[in-house]
Amino acid sequence: MKMKLLLNSKYYLILVFVLTFHTVLAQEPNTQNPPQATENPNPNPASEETIPEENPEDPKWKKAEIRVIGDKKDLKRIPGSATIITKKELEESRPTDNMEILRRVPGANIRYQDPAGLTMNLGFRGVSGEVSRKVLVLEDGLFTSLNPYGEPEMYYTPSIERMERIEIVKGSGSILFGPSTIGGVVNFITRKPPKDPKLTLQTIGGENAYFSQMVNYGGTFGNTGFDVNVLRKQGDGFRAHQGYFVNEANVKTIHQLNDKNNITTKIGFHQQESQATYVGLTTGMFNNNPKDNPAQNDKRSIERYSFSIGHEYTFSEKTKLITRVYSAYTERNWARQNYARNSRGSSIPSDALATYDGEPYTSRNSDTIWMRGTNAHRDRTYKFAGIESKLQTELETGSIKHEIDLGVRYHIDMAKVQLLNGPVTPDFVLYPNGPGTSAVVLQSQTSLATSGELRDDERRSAKAVSVYFQDRIRLTDKFSIIPGVRYESFSQTRSINRGRRDFNPVTFDYASGTNPTVQLDKTASTRNQIVLPGFGTTLDFARNLTWFTGVHRGFSPPRYESAISPTAEDLVLKPERSWNYETGVRGDITEYLSGQLVGYLLNFEDQIINSSAAGGNLGSRPVNAGRSIRRGVETNMTFDFGQFWKWNYNVPLDIIYTRTEAKSNQYTYNLTEWTRGNTNPLVHIDTNGNRLPYVSRDILTLSIGISSRSTGFYARVEWQYFSKQFHDLENSKSVYWYDSVGTSTDNRLLLSYAGIKSDASGLDGEIPAYELVNANIGYKKDNWSVFVSGKNLQDRKYISSRLPEGIQPGPFRQVNFGVTLQL
């Protein structure tokens, strides 16, 4: 593993010292909010920003962040559902990962699949959350996914410890951003350079050997401000053999050249190693020991480097031009041990190293996993770069005011994808009764091959041009209409150098058994263009209340593997598209009651049905045959008893509720018949009206807190409920196993003895409803704080997912203690 120096504390501090005097200039320009007639030196006092109030005439404080929403007051400008998670909320909840805090956002659905939420699976309003492919996730307005236009997976996730606030937009305001906006836009915002030099230390430790240490140092000297952040996080995970660590270092600076010119940059480094695995538990294993993990030899390592530089030119108080260049490099290597499941008539593989089953029921079909003596190395490298220029201006036509955003972006993606098959683990001989006695041949159970023979070797790339325009037309001081349009043109290329020989382009599957690797050297490309209109309105019908409506077109590009076949054939797939409609009200009803109520309808069409197995190319031919409809209501309300009774304490009661009716509007096609031209519904499965996978119909969060306005004390208790989910579009509930040992009733009892409707393998069945209790308590003074946070205090054992390959439990109880200090 590279950069091991970060593990040593003295080098940790040396790195902070070196980066402190780094002269590269960083801090991102604003790409969302038009300039105001009068600049506000502290643009977000409501969220407790780091920069203190300064002289508004001082040009160095005319900072422009990349924001999707902006300040709390800017919520009035968004023609759709929008949420801001403030610095105060982050400090008082102390989440250990992004999904923990984001599942409090109305409409969010999440699932865990690794020991620490390192892979973010996030969706909104019933849109698939698989590796967050349908949600655009940004950090300070910049891409965070591997390849936005070809492989938008979120295997790298910005660390929540570094964040000052989070913005989420699911409505028409997302027309300024792309791609992958069907599910919405999430923008993580990091700390800005403070005015005075400030060193901040944060240390957190807790159960499961969890430890987190973060160091921040920043300040402003003359016309240059900078902020340096270094983070180390590690733990054993909440299941066996799931240790991990994360190292990060980031630098932001801003330099005010003169009254009209800002130069900004940002440099980031992320290193991660974890025992993340695709192998889930069987039903019996989950009931016997949900903390078990058969894949003790799996290891995933990630290194990511990012850089951006921006220039902002201010023509006048009402017009500015923002240009930025950005790039990122990610190396993701993942060694995963091969395994087999027992099935009717199967026998233990000759290279099996270990057997895992669901005691006390040890002989059920599909309830045993054999970990084998070989592995596969999925080594991948991703790069992207781009340049974007955006003009923000205000103008008037008669008595009508216009706030205009006009921008263009050129972006390129590149990827190198390889799979290496590791050799069989070498045997070793043991003489249990001494030399000369009978020998026992064993295989190593603690280590597997660190490399292997090249099987798959590909180069992938994408190029995209985006143009967007939005005009906020203020017809009156209270009523605005907001038309906009976005144009996307992108191409994708897949060059297949090596691959398996026996691939059937009709069944879209590989021949079973031995399938030799051959040199293919084939290349294919595909091109798509799409126009994405949007229209919204906002009406301030009371002092602090806004009614909004919006409709917009969302889209998501096909992945490389979907768009182009393993034989380098352009499959002529269209982008997935959606029409998103919504209307709602938000604002402060009184000084003690505020909230948002939204109704929405999302019509998702041209969905790519692709049953390829995760991490490989098995399955059926992808087609644009999917359709689904989502209807729902989202609300979040806060009633502050402290404000109501005029106490010296704030006592907010939060109610966050989502009702989602997400249903299929299609047949699940027999894709072999589809490719042969047979669209007769009688040969397909009717899933019309079935609920979509991994979407809880009802999600409810109730929390009550207390915080002193004078002493710095705060506490909060939270209860969350998630209704049951289905794993597949057929809404399978359970699969029963029959043999000569007993009746089907006997076996039915075995498979649901813990109330889990599932097959024995754990691969299919319902995701039962579950509820969680979380709590936080802390005390803050001017320059220090202490806190205790508890997650899942009841230590509920629940199923978070059956993907990728079996039952993945959700995080168990985690209690952390932390301190912060500012110098």
Topology summary:
Elements: H1 9-20, E1 82-85, H2 87-93, H3 98-102, E2 108-110, E3 122-124, E4 136-139, E5 142-143, E6 163-169, E7 185-190, E8 198-206, E9 210-221, E10 224-235, E11 244-256, E12 261-274, H4 283-288, E13 299-316, E14 319-341, E15 352-357, E16 368-397, E17 400-421, E18 427-430, E19 440-443, E20 453-474, E21 479-500, E22 503-504, E23 509-510, E24 517-542, E25 545-556, H5 560-563, E26 576-588, E27 593-609, E28 623-640, H6 641-645, E29 649-650, E30 652-664, E31 667-668, H7 671-675, E32 685-686, E33 698-708, E34 713-722, E35 725-726, H8 744-751, E36 766-767, E37 770-780, E38 784-791, E39 799-801, E40 808-809, E41 814-822
Parallel strand pairs: 4-7
Antiparallel strand pairs: 1-6, 2-3, 4-5, 6-7, 8-9, 8-41, 9-10, 10-11, 11-12, 12-13, 13-14, 14-16, 15-16, 16-17, 17-20, 18-19, 20-21, 21-24, 22-23, 24-25, 25-26, 26-27, 27-28, 28-30, 29-33, 30-33, 31-32, 33-34, 34-37, 35-36, 37-38, 38-41, 39-40
Subcellular location: Cell outer membrane
Domain TonB-dependent receptor-like beta-barrel: 261-793
Keywords: Cell outer membrane, Membrane, Receptor, Signal, TonB box, Transmembrane, Transmembrane beta strand, Transport
